[in-house]
TrEMBL record:
The lineage of its organism: Bacteria, Pseudomonadati, Pseudomonadota, Alphaproteobacteria, Rhodobacterales. One of its GO terms (biological process) is respiratory electron transport chain. Its main location: membrane. GO terms for molecular function: electron transfer activity; heme binding. Residues 174-212 are annotated as: Disordered. The chain crosses the membrane at residues 48-66, 104-124, 144-164. It is a multi-pass membrane protein. Keywords: Cell membrane, Membrane, Transmembrane, Transmembrane helix. One of its GO terms (cellular component) is plasma membrane. InterPro entries: Cyt_b561_bac/Ni-Hgenase, Di-haem_cyt_TM, Hydrogenase_cytochrome. Pfam families: Ni_hydr_CYTB (PF01292). It comes from Cereibacter sphaeroides (strain ATCC 17023 / DSM 158 / JCM 6121 / CCUG 31486 / LMG 2827 / NBRC 12203 / NCIMB 8253 / ATH 2.4.1.) (Rhodobacter sphaeroides). Residues 17-177 form the Cytochrome b561 bacterial/Ni-hydrogenase domain. SUPFAM superfamilies: Transmembrane di-heme cytochromes (SSF81342). This is Cytochrome b.
């Protein structure tokens, strides 16, 4: 039954995809990385925020095993061949839409978790007696930090491209936790566990599609 406050019915609000913990992690990590990028290296606050990043990453790894459906690694971690196939579809202008992370997004999650962990651990190593003032660990930490920033830039670019291709606001969905169900055909379960997918635009609604 439609109400005066929701004239389009319950589907208008979208389907719930990102749980509060995933959203809090996402924006907390984004804020921490932005702070580290702007803060002066070697200061106490830089070190504290670095430890915060490690805590956030540790939480996200655990949540990837026990969290709800779209937060779990099993929902979006796929074989490299499927990631490459998805990237090929992007270049072709007809990528499938996923309610959760798409294959490229899933790979980026893993890359960012690994990069943030390596950067944080190398920063911690710099504070130990054994490696205090050692040049190679300082250079490694700087290189890893720059690599993390590069991944962040690629992530932002990928989000903008996916949002443009699918005509949806992905930033807003990470704030509200909801995404449009897109009434363009049946959503299918990825055989390798990469979340819920929808047929490419222009596909016949009644046909079955396989990814890759």
């Amino acid at each position: 039954m439609r109400t005066g406050t929701d004239p389009l019915g319950p589907r208008a609000a979208g389907v719930r995809v990102w749980d509060p913990a995933v959203r809090l992690f996402h924006w907390s990590l984004a804020g921490a990385i932005a702070w580290e990028m702007l803060a002066e290296a070697g200061t106490d606050i830089h070190e504290v925020v670095g430890y915060l990043v490690l805590v956030l990453v540790t939480f996200r790894i655990g949540w990837g095993f026990v969290g709800p459906r779209h937060a779990r690694f099993a929902d979006f971690v796929v074989r490299p061949a499927r990631v490459l196939a998805y990237l090929k579809d992007i270049l072709g202008g007809h990528p499938r839409r996923y309610l959760g992370h798409n294959p490229a997004g899933g790979a980026m999650v893993l890359a960012l978790l690994a990069a943030a962990t390596a950067t944080g651990l190398s920063g911690w190593a710099m504070t130990t007696d054994a490696l205090w003032g050692v040049e190679w660990i300082e250079e490694l930490h700087e290189t890893l930090a720059n690599g993390t920033l590069l991944l962040v830039a690629l992530h932002v670019g990928g989000v903008m491209l996916a949002g443009f291709q699918h005509r949806e606001n992905l930033v807003r969905s990470m704030v509200t936790g909801r995404k449009s169900p897109k009434r363009q055909g049946p959503r299918l379960r990825h055989p390798a566990g990469a979340g819920t997918i929808e047929p490419p635009a222009g596909s016949a609604p009644g046909r079955s599609h396989r990814d890759g």
